[in-house]
Amino acid sequence: MSTSPMDSRNVAKEPSLRLGSGVMFDAIAERYDLLNRIISLGIDQIWRRRAVNALALGPKPRVLDVATGTADLAILIAAMHASARVDGVDPSTKMLEFGVRKVREEALDDRVALRVGECESLPFDDASFDGATIAFGIRNVADRPRGLAELRRVVRPGGRVVVLELSEPEGGVLGKLAKFHVHEVVPFVGGLLSGSREYRYLQASIAAFPPPDRFSELMREAGLEIEAVLPQTFGVAHIFVGRVPEAA
Fold first, then answer.
1. Quick count: other Cβ atoms within 10 Å of Cβ 216?
2. N or C, which end of the chain is more exposed by having fewer CB within 10 Å?
3. What are the pLDDT digits (tens) for 175-219?
4. What is the spatial distance between Cα 48 and Cα 70, in angstroms, rounded to a whole number?
5. Contact, 78 vs 103, CB < 8 A?
6. Domain that holds residue 139
């Protein structure tokens, strides 16, 4: 199944898909990028760049960015790989509206296409992409095993699925400070600046996310070979690199 890329004129025409986390993120879309920069002190951009490097893309790749939000990572992939074509999907129409604007501002309309979509049911054929990413989105996927299986399905054999996700910091004084930041500073600042309580959800969702070894096992169970698990900034985030096995 396939769908045509969305633009700012048709973003709001998919109400049936505006469920779950899509509705929640609609509420914070306008200030989402600013909040991320402030709350993470800009470190999230460094993590994203590392995630793109972990894809190890070849020439003229086609890449999928799931839970693309306002298209930060999709745009970065296109910027770091001048010959890349990037498809971004997200359940939040409001987030995608801002993403469309950013894509146009960067003059990337011909290489970055955004559309409404869910991780558990990706609107693409098997082995359509050379690599796929999902940043800060897998913890919002209700059926993670199915979502990971879908990511594996749409990536060609030998391609990589890279997951960047926040995690519960552990160990040491710096780990404790990082945990305090995640549990107290993030929801407080997010709620204060956005005028919304949605960022309180961030704290709970991070605490509920499986530890790195368990999430790695979920990726293996989805049929991915784990190439690397890379902790970021005292364990505040991890980059998981899975490879789709070559055909036998």
1. 20
2. C
3. 677 667 666 676 666 666 555 555 566 666 766 789 999 999 999
4. 14
5. no
6. 11-167+210-243
